[in-house]
Amino acid sequence: MKILVLNSGSSSIKFKLFDMNGRNVILDGFIEEIGSDHSRVNINYGNEPFVKDVAIKDHLEGMDYLNSFFKKMDELNSKIEQRKEAVNLKREQDILPIVKKIKTKQVQNAPK
């Protein structure tokens, strides 16, 4: 289960996304100076912080920005998982003939 915690101030949104299964923080950050032409978005996700200056006119637009970031994050994670599964399947396909050869040799060399 994931839980998003928001702290919405007069000109900022602060947030943390928790993974309650692993009991860890997935990401955190803030949007500040909402309502100005130079709002700052700062998101800490993984090893690379995401920092961008954008014009965010109000809190609704700020939440839309966060929502689009979360969607992109989910799409990226989904692609990563698909690639991991493909690599694992390829490894299994490559390893299976080797395992069969080893088992065949073990049977042939087994004491009678």
Detailed description of the structure:
By secondary structure, the protein is an alpha+beta fold. The chain contains 1 helix and 5 strands; from the N terminus they run βββββα. The chain has one helix at about 60-110, and strands spanning about 1-10, 10-20, 25-30, 40-45, 50-55. The chain has a 5-stranded antiparallel sheet with strand order 1-2-3-4-5, covered by helices on one side. A hairpin with a 3-residue loop joins strand 1 (about 1-10) and strand 2. The protein is elongated, with a radius of gyration of 24 Å. The model has no long low-confidence stretch (mean pLDDT about 85).
Please, what is the average pLDDT? Answer: 83
Q: What is the rounded distance between the termini?
A: 56 Å
H and E string: EEEEEH
The residue ranges in which pLDDT falls below 50 over 5 or more consecutive positions are none
> What is the tally of beta strands?
5
Helix content: 40-55%
Helices and strands: which structural class?
Answer: alpha+beta
